[in-house]
Amino acid sequence: MLEAVTRRFGAQVEVRWHAYELRPSPVPLRDPDSDYISEHWQNRVLPMAAERGLTMRVPRRALRSRPALQATLFARGQDHAQFEEFHSRVFRARFADDADISDLAVLGEIGRAAGLGSDALADAVKSGAHLEELETDLALAQAIGINGVPAALVGPDTTDFAAFAGDAEPVIGAVPEEWMAGAVERALSGDRSHARLRRRFRDGE
């Protein structure tokens, strides 16, 4: 969806990715054989993926995302095109190939395929070089009320992120492309009709 929206609006849109840990330790991981996973994927995720032309598989592994998030933060500090390629490949590895993206060898191979140094990437994860950045992103998500993924905030460009986060339009969930496009159009035109939705999101209603 984001790729389609950025193609549609071109240089008018800048996407800034931030890390979010859905089930940080010690929060229990969901059993991939549970009825919940089966129902959620068969009745929601897979039909949506088919509608949007995505290849996805029901996950057979329950994973912690922290190693992959650290690796992505390493990639974020490199060439932008390499970051975009790595980011895309991590998602494909997890949701199309059911690869173990908590495994450093797997992440290193993804990094190599994206044009990043696999050894440097693995070293960054093992050393915790980007843990401070990760914790900053997680604290930011908590401060602005993010409690699930996917989640996006859409608003006018500003160097004051606190002001941006406090006023941007929330786009929560795997919404249709037109929903995100509508939020972008409102931001570009200065349309403030999202203000009521923003208040409800902020107050947790």
Annotate the secondary structure layout.
Layout: H1 2-9, H2 35-51, H3 66-76, H4 80-95, H5 104-113, H6 118-127, H7 131-144, E1 151-154, H8 161-167, E2 169-172, H9 177-189, H10 195-203
Antiparallel strand pairs: 1-2
Helix pairs in contact: 1-9, 3-4, 3-6, 4-5, 5-6
Task: Describe this protein's structure.
This protein has 205 residues and is mainly alpha-helical. The chain folds into 2 domains: 103 residues, 3-Layer(aba) Sandwich (Glutaredoxin), CATH 3.40.30.10; 59 residues, no CATH class. Helix content is 56%, strand content 4%. The chain has 10 helices and 2 strands. Strands 1-2 form a two-stranded antiparallel ribbon. α1 packs across α9. The longest helix has 17 residues. It is globular.
Could you provide a short overview of the structure?
56% of the residues lie in helices and 4% in strands. The protein has helices spanning 2-9, 35-51, 66-76, 80-95, 104-113, 118-127, 131-144, 161-167, 177-189, 195-203, and strands at residues 151-154, 169-172.
Helices, by number, come to: 10
Mean pLDDT: 90
How many structural domains in the coordinates? 2
Helix and strand string, N-terminal first? HHHHHHHEHEHH
What is the name of the CATH superfamily of the largest domain? Glutaredoxin
- Determine the structural class based on helices, strands and strand pairing: mainly alpha
CATH architecture assignment name of the largest domain: 3-Layer(aba) Sandwich
Rg, rounded, reads 18 Å
Q: Using the alpha-carbon principal axes, give the shape.
A: globular
Biggest sheet strand order reads: 1-2
Q: What is the number of E strands?
A: 2
The CATH C-level name of the largest domain is Alpha Beta
CATH topology of the largest domain: Glutaredoxin
The level of helicity is: 55-70%
Low-pLDDT runs of 5+ residues are none
- Work out the strand percent: under 5%
Largest sheet: 2 strands, antiparallel
Task: Report the span from N to C terminus.
Answer: 26 Å
